């Protein structure tokens, strides 16, 4: 991402402000969105640091992040849950939705130039899907399964036949997560904020549409670039995020960025970082492909 485009890192801000405005109409204290703003600052600083880091440091950090992300997801199973649902890391009074915050880093491992790293990340993704089934988290399970389809279909990770078989496994595990008991009720300023904005009239609907579109701008721009990632990676990340938004209309799942909660905001910055700060890849002729805009 060039210096002229660093402003794109502020793309989540209008959505956060709109979510806080909706919460205010419900007499919910605006301070509950302080975690979103803190995540914006932390995520933006992390993105800038990685984009400006040396290629060697970037490669080293991105090599280990999928493993750390998987461990964070695994830890949710031992942290206290809510009505037998375990999706969060409890940090004092704060509950961080681990998959929303860290799963994109697992996807990032699939864009590695190392065949071994890609194989390890695919195994981590399968492990993450099993964790989603155990938690349960149908939203993230569905987003992961659909997000992986372009990569598994492209044949860049594994042979297409194997990829289609793996896609079937991910989809079946996602379907299984929808059958698990999930008694949690919706919290208006977390899971229903988008529906409530639409219900308040045309101006609110337009504001929600604009704010939501801005969040997608960096993802869409990445699709138009000559990417250093494997074919389908940008589409996979965009499809993953789109699904996390779409499933909020099907169940009681947090609206990404616009709903109160730091996890989806951190996850958004992870996706943008991966799309714009991946180290250059080496093709089969040993030619280094430069990472444009980094």
Gist?
The protein has 294 residues and is mostly helical. The chain has twelve helices and four strands, in the order H-H-H-E-E-H-H-H-H-H-H-H-H-H-E-E.
Description:
The structure is a single chain. With 294 residues, the chain is mainly alpha-helical. It is 63% helix and 4% strand. The chain has one domain. It contains 12 helices and 4 strands, in the order H-H-H-E-E-H-H-H-H-H-H-H-H-H-E-E. Helix 2 packs parallel to helix 12. The radius of gyration is 18 Å and the shape is globular. The termini are close together. The C terminus is likely disordered.
Q: Tell me the distance between the termini.
A: 5 Å
- Overall spatial form: globular
* Sequence of secondary-structure elements: HHHEEHHHHHHHHHEE
Question: What is the structural class?
Answer: mainly alpha
Major sheet details: 2 strands, antiparallel
Q: How large a portion of the residues is in β-strands, by DSSP E?
A: under 5%
Count the DSSP helices: 12
Q: What's the mean pLDDT score?
A: 90
Contiguous uncertain segments of 5+ residues: 282-294
Radius of gyration: 18 Å
Indicate the multimeric state: single chain
Reading side by side through the largest sheet, how are the strands ordered?
1-2
Helix content: 55-70%
Descriptive keywords:
single chain, globular, two-stranded antiparallel ribbon, disordered C terminus, 294 residues, mainly alpha, 4 strands, 63% helix
What is this structure's SSE topology?
Blueprint: H1 12-25, H2 34-52, H3 55-75, E1 88-91, E2 94-97, H4 98-109, H5 115-134, H6 138-154, H7 160-179, H8 188-191, H9 193-199, H10 202-223, H11 233-246, H12 263-277, E3 281-282, E4 288-289
Antiparallel strand pairs: 1-2, 3-4
Helix pairs in contact: 1-10, 2-12, 3-4, 3-5, 4-5, 4-12, 5-6, 5-7, 6-7, 6-11, 9-10, 10-11
